[in-house]
Every structure is written in C-alpha cells, then in structure tokens.
C-alpha cells in the first residue's frame, strides 16, 4: 500500500484555479451522488435552531467550585452527545488568531505559480494540495489546502512552510504553539471527566505526540448544491481545533439524521473529537461525522490543527473503561496504520473506525 502513496494517480487540478476560470458547470468529478448532496433531506435541519454547545473555558479555573463542576460537565456532555463544541476564553490570543488567518487568506491570493512551488505529494501530504486520498478515480471535493507538521519536532520542516507572506512562518509557529497548549488542557479535562487519571490520555498519546495543520481553502462554487467542500468524515486523529472563517459558515455536523450548520462565534474555536479518542474512551466519547458545504458568493478559509497520538503508539480502549457490560469495542492499532486509510481513500464517513470494531 505504501508504494501507491508516493505520487498522485492523475494530474492535480487546483480548485481555486477552476473557480477563477469562471466556469458555470462543475466537472463531473466533483458532483456527489444525490444522497450526499447538501440539499438531500435538509428541510428539518435547516428549520431547527439547534447548534453545538458553547463552553466558556474560564469556568474551569473559577474560584467557585460549582462553576468549575458545571463547566467540566458541559464539556463531558458535549463529548458524549455531540463530539463537538465551541470554546471561548480559551487562552489563545485573538490578535494572533486573526493575523494568522489573514496571512493564509493572503497566501491563497498569491499567483498560482508561487503556490505550485509547494505542491504536495501523498507520501507526506506536506505542502499545497487539492485532494485527500490517493486512489485513482475517487470523488473530489471543492477545496484546496496547505498541510504541514508542527510536532513531533523531529519531522517539523519549516523549509516547507511558505516564505510568503513574510510573516507566515513566524505566525504559524506561534499559533501552533498556543493551540497545542490548549489541546493539552483539554486532554486533562477529558481524562478527568472520564474518571481517568488527569494525564491518562496525554500519556496514551505518547511524549512525542503529533500536531499538524491543514489550512483549508474553499473557493466559490458555481453549483454548490451538487458538491461538498469536504465530504463527510470523522477526523482520524485525537482531536481537532478548528478556527473557522468568521464571515462564512460552511461546517455541518451530523446530529442523528440531520446536518446541523455550525454558527461560528467570533474568536471562538470549534473543538471536535477524533477517532482515537472514541477508541481510547471505548466509545463513551464520539468522533462525529462532519462535512463542509460551499457557496457561490464567498470563498472560505479555515485552520484545522490536528492533535494526534505519536505514530507508533498502540491505541486501545482504556482498561478502566472496559467492564463486563462494556467489553473493549475496538482492536488495538497504531495511529500510523490507522492514518493510511484516510490517506488512501479520502474522507469516507465513519467507515474506518467501524472497521476496527471487535467482532462480538
Ligand atoms: C477538517 C475539517 C472543517 C472546516 O479539516 O478535517 O473538518 O470547516 N474542516 O474546514
Ligand atoms: Ni474534519
């Protein structure tokens, strides 16, 4: 399987470029089957007012024990029911967040030839990319991205980060550092909420854990009802901290049979649990399917930082969460092995974590 990850199976089309040519009809490769289109059975969800929970993280450090308890419990409920929540007062500088996102907007405005210098290969995905999944003929999504590693430090290669705009490298370093710190705090809270030792999850991820970022760019689309910016998937890693575009919504989260469109709060992050936390918690916590819709009016930029176990760590349900009534639901796997699936097939709903389910 590794060999097929060395190069893309067909020429890569930049979606931004396609969008800028002014086409009125999108190529077939981007047209989703009817049941995957944004318009399929969306009346109920569109009419509902439900949204993912919002957590004020300051409550976790309140002098009032009752506020601390309520805040932790709100996070616990969100992890069980939604696998998603927004956080405010999260400790990351708002000014830094804004500048980092602006830098990336500027990056995507650079001429195509400049961005092409960073064109990526599927062996590491680092750089400027336009597809997830290396299998020939897979359905394509209406987005481009820039991907890079931040941790472990041994695989960080700042030479692969953009030199333009000027401030990009420095901002990315600082942004990633602050967001990784936030992830550490959340991991401790998740552990405690699950009744585990405070550092249980962090230890399960390993000392040399991973953090990588994908900056997603969703260009305007002339036929947004036929395609998706990012097909339905759950994130394969530990947790994702998403900084969405404040001007344009697009992220949808599955809630039962509905897709709920998240309304971003200015300066908030969207936190979502990935498959590894579902496995470690023996499915007490859920990694929930989500997808991105596009529109014909505005492009959208989002920054996703993925916080992952060290590649060689074997991830399996925590022993304390395995009981006679709740046997281990998943087979042990390393994250390196697990990650190959998404990198081969691209986003495929929740089929991957389901494939790990122990046979009963
Ligand atoms: C992702 C993702 C959502 C978004 O990058 O995995 O789900 O809003 N992104 O861009
Ligand atoms: Ni995702």
From TrEMBL:
Signal peptide: none annotated. One of its GO terms (molecular function) is jasmonic acid hydrolase. PROSITE patterns: FE2OG_OXY. One of its GO terms (biological process) is coumarin biosynthetic process. It comes from the Eukaryota. It holds the Pfam family 2OG-FeII_Oxy. The keyword Metal-binding applies. Residues 208-309 form the Fe2OG dioxygenase domain. It catalyses: jasmonate + 2-oxoglutarate + O2 = (1R,2R)-12-hydroxyjasmonate + succinate + CO2. Its cofactor is Fe(2+); L-ascorbate. Keywords: Dioxygenase, Iron, Jasmonic acid signaling pathway, Metal-binding, Oxidoreductase, Plant defense. Belongs to the iron/ascorbate-dependent oxidoreductase family. This is Jasmonate-induced oxygenase 1. It comes from Castilleja foliolosa.
């Amino acid at each position: 399987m590794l060999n097929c990850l060395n190069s893309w199976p067909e020429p890569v089309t930049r979606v931004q470029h396609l969008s800028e040519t002014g086409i009125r009809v999108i190529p077939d490769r981007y047209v989703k089957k009817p049941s995957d289109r944004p318009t399929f059975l969306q009346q109920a969800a569109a009419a509902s007012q439900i949204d993912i929970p919002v957590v004020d993280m300051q409550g976790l450090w309140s002098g009032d024990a009752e506020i601390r308890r309520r805040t932790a419990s709100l996070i616990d409920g969100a992890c069980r029911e939604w696998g998603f929540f927004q956080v405010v007062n999260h400790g990351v500088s708002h000014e830094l967040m804004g500048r980092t996102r602006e830098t990336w907007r500027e990056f995507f405005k650079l001429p195509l030839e400049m961005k092409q210098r960073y064109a990526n290969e599927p062996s590491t995905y680092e750089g400027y990319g336009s597809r997830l999944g290396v299998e020939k003929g897979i359905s394509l999504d209406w987005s481009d991205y820039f991907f890079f590693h931040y941790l472990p430090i041994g695989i960080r290669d700042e030479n692969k980060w953009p030199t333009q705009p000027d401030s990009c490298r420095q901002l990315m370093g600082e942004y990633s550092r602050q967001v990784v710190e936030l992830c550490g705090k959340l991991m401790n809270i998740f552990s405690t909420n699950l009744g585990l030792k405070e550092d249980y999850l962090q230890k399960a991820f390993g000392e040399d854990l991973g953090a990588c970022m994908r900056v997603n760019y969703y260009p305007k689309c002339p036929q947004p009802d036929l395609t998706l910016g990012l097909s339905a998937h759950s994130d394969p890693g530990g947790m994702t901290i998403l900084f969405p575009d404040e001007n344009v919504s697009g992220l949808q989260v599955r809630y039962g049979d509905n897709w709920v469109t998240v309304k971003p709060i200015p300066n908030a992050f969207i936190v979502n649990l990935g498959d590894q936390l579902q496995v470690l918690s023996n499915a007490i916590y859920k990694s929930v399917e989500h997808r991105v819709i596009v529109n014909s009016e505005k492009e959208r930029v989002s920054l996703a930082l993925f916080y992952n176990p060290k590649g060689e760590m074997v991830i399996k349900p925590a022993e304390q969460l395995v009981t006679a009534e709740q046997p281990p639901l998943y087979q042990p796997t390393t994250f390196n092995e697990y990650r190959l699936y998404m990198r081969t097939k691209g986003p495929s709903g929740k089929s991957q974590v389901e494939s790990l389910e122990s046979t009963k």
